[in-house]
Design brief:
Layout lengths: L2 H18 L5 H12 L3 H28 L10 H15 L7 H15 L4 H18 L10
Helix pairs in contact: 1-2, 1-3, 1-4, 2-3, 3-4, 4-5, 4-6, 5-6
């Protein structure tokens, strides 16, 4: 498994953990998860970048999810799916555009297949493809905050 994929998994595990059990800080939680997973420092650094970017822009990402998850309120979206979407939106909407949106979507689908329910990957793929289309057409702008 690549370092970036592992970093995404660490960030996702931490986001999920923080939402289910919101006591303690993100940095400490990520350190605990990284120790359990014996993650390399570069992988941990990538996971922290993702995690902190998601947390900093979470309200914006949640509004996007609510907007694109037609007929679904945010609280009806499974916790793991919601966090995969947040993570992927952060990667898609970063201003440095290091990772093409199609790759972000593919990575999100793989995370959903590994961690989500049987239909999670379809739901996530549908939302992220709509976001990608609107991003490319200029209907969506980058969040005001950002790394």
């Amino acid at each position: 498994m690549g370092k970036r994929r592992k970093g995404r998994e660490l960030a996702l595990q931490c986001l999920y953990s923080l939402e289910v059990l919101p006591t303690g800080g993100a940095e400490e939680r990520l350190a605990d998860i990284s120790r359990e997973e014996t993650a390399e420092k570069t992988t941990q650094a990538f996971a922290w970048e993702l995690l902190s970017g998601v947390k900093e822009n979470q309200d914006y990402f949640d509004r996007l999810i609510s907007q694109y998850a037609t007929n679904w309120s945010l609280d009806r979206v499974a916790v793991i799916d919601r966090n995969i979407l947040r993570l992927s939106l952060y990667e898609m909407l970063r201003k440095n555009e290091e990772i093409p949106p199609a790759v972000c979507i593919d990575e999100a689908v793989e995370l959903a297949k590994s961690y989500g329910s049987e239909d999670s990957y379809r739901f996530i793929n549908g939302i992220l493809n709509k976001v990608k289309e609107d991003l490319e057409s200029g209907k969506i702008d980058y969040p005001q905050k950002g790394p």
